[in-house]
Fold:
Amino acid sequence: MTYMDDSKIWDQLLPYLEEEKPCIICKSQTFEVWAKIYYLEAKKCKSCGMISVNPHFSDEGLKLLYNNYFKERQKNVEKKTLRDLAYVIDRDWVSLFVKGGEVLDVGCSGGLFLSKFSPEHWERCGVEIAHDCSEYAQKLFDIPVYVGDIVDINLDNKFDLVMLRGTVEHLNNPISVLLKCSMLIKKNGYLYIAASPAGNSFAFEVYREKWGQFTPLEHIHFFTVKLLDRVLKSLGLSLVTFHYPYEETPYASITSDFEKIKQDIVKISQGRRDEITGSVPFPGSVFLALWKKVK
Structure:
C-alpha cells in the first residue's frame, strides 16, 4: 500500500473538502461525473471538456497531504529509478528547443529533475512548498529553492525557461500560478509543462477511475494541450510544440500494454469492469508541451 492509498490520509483530509467550484477554464457550472474514488469525483465540464476533481481540498488540506509526500516517494527504489530515467528524457526533449540560460522549476520537489540540467549551461533554482525538499535540493545538488507558494514569492529576476514538471495537475489554483509564471518569463523565453496527465487520453476514457494517472488526492486537474493553450494564449504565450512520450520511456512494454488494454476493453463492454485491477502505460496518457512568450 502506498502513502496515497492509506485510508488514514483520506480520513484526515475529509474535513478540508471544499464546495464545488465553477470550471477553471470557462467558469461553467454544468458537469458530468467522469470518475470517482471514495468521496472524490472527477467531473467533466459540459461546455469546454475540462476534467477536474471537484470539489477538492483547501490549501490547508493540501499542505497536510504533502507533509510527508516527498519522503514517502523516495522509499520506492524501483519507481525512483524509473523516474530518474524519465527526467533525462524530458530534459532532452526540451533541450532540443532551449539550450541554456536561467531556469526556474516550479514545484521542483527535491530538485531531482532540475539536477539533470547541467550547471555549465543553466543557472538553476526552484520553488517548492515543502521545507524538506528545499533542504534536499540544496544539500545534494547545490540548487537554491524558494519555499512557499510561487504566487506569493517575490523574485527579482526573470527566466529564460520556467518549468512545471508533474506540477500543474497538483495545483489548487493553476490559473493563478500560470499567470505568475508568465510574468517571470523573459521576452522570447519559454514555459515548459511536462509529464502532465492528459484529460483527453484514450486510456482515461477506457479506464476512468482505474486509470493509473487518476490519483485524485494529488492529481486535481486533467488538462489537455488545447485547453492549456487557451489559457496561455491569453497570457501572451504561443504554443511551440508538444509531444506524448511513450515508446521511449522506461514504462512502456508495447506488446503487453496493447494486449492488456484490448482485453480490458472487452471486459468493460461485457459489464466486467470490476475484474480490471488497473491500467497500463499507453500512448497519449501524458504530455510535454512548450510555449514561447511573445508579448
Q: What stands out?
A: The mean pLDDT is 94. The first strand starts at residue 31 and ends at 37. Residues 68-293 form a domain with the Rossmann fold fold (CATH 3.40.50.150). The radius of gyration is 19 Å.
